[in-house]
Amino acid sequence: QVQLVESGGGLVQPGGSLRLSCAASGNIFRVNAMGWYRQAPGKQRELVATITSAGSTHYADSVKGRFTISRDSATNTGYLEMNSLKPEDTAVYYCNANIYRYGLGSYDYWGQGTQVTVSS
C-alpha cells in the first residue's frame, strides 16, 4: 500500500506564509511527478504546482512568484512554500504523486487534504 500524508495547513493572515509537506510511504519503488492541487468551497479542484522527478516545475498563473514547490527524493517528501498569501488562496490543498510500485506499474495517489485559510 501507499500513503500520502499532508501537514502544515492552518489559519494565516493575508500576506503571511505557510509551508505544506507531503510524505509518501509504503511499497514505493520510485516517486515520479508530484503536485499540489486545491479546492475552494463551491469550486472545482485546480492545479497549483507540479514538480517532475528531474526537478522541473510548473505553476498556475495565480501563484507564480508567490509559491515554490520542491521535493526531497531521499525521503519521498514534497513541499509547497506559500508566501504573500491572499484570501483567495483559501482552500483544501491536496498532494498528488505518481508512484511506481515494482512489478505493479505507476499509479496516481492522493493525500487526504489539508485546510489553508487566509483571513484577518
Tell me the distance between the termini.
40 Å
Low-confidence stretches: none
Figure out the total of helices. 0
Order of H and E elements: EEEEEEEEEEE
Structural class: mainly beta
Classify the beta-strand content into a percent band: over 45%
**Count of DSSP strands:** 11
Helix share, percent: under 10%
Query: Mean pLDDT across all residues, rounded?
Result: 96
Q: How large is the radius of gyration?
A: 14 Å
Largest sheet: 7 strands, mixed
Shape: elongated
Oligomer: single chain
Architecture overview:
Helix content is 0%, strand content 59%. It has 120 residues and is mainly β. The chain is elongated, with a radius of gyration of 14 Å.
